[in-house]
Amino acid sequence: MTSTSGVRDAKRLPAALENLWDRVVSRELSGADGPGVVYAYRNHGLWKAGRTRNIQRRLREWAQDCPSSNREWVGWRATPYVNQTEYLLHLALETVCLSRPRFQCNCGKTHLELFELGDDSEMAEDLILEVMEMVVVFVLAKY
Ligand SMILES: [Zn+2]
Asked: pLDDT tens across 59-75, in order?
C-alpha cells in the first residue's frame, strides 16, 4: 500500500501557468536538450508524466526505485526536445488537473509531478494521452 498522508496540493493558478508557458516558449531551447521520450503512467489513482532518453532503462529504474504492483504504463511519445516537451507537458497537465499532490510514497520518496485527473480512469487516460499528443505536436511545429 502507498500512504496518502502528507498529500499537499501544489497546483498553481491558471494565469500563473499561462505566464510560465509564454515565458518558456519565448526562450531559446537549451543546448543540452535533445531527443527522447515522454511517458505517462497511473499509480494508485494518480497520474505521472516524465521523460527519458532511454525508455527501457527508465522502465527498469522505476521498477527498482519505486516497486509498485499498481503502476500501469499508458503511453509514451518520442520528441526531438525531451526536456522542453516534459516541462510544457507538466504545465499543461497542471492546468487541466484537479490537483497536483506532493505524494509521500512508501518507497521513501516524495514523488512530484503527479496529477489527479478525476475518478473516471478511462477519461483520465484519454486526457493525459491527448495532452501529451498536443504538447508533442506543439514542440514539433515550433522548433
Ligand atoms: Zn515511490
From this structure: 899 889 998 768 899 99
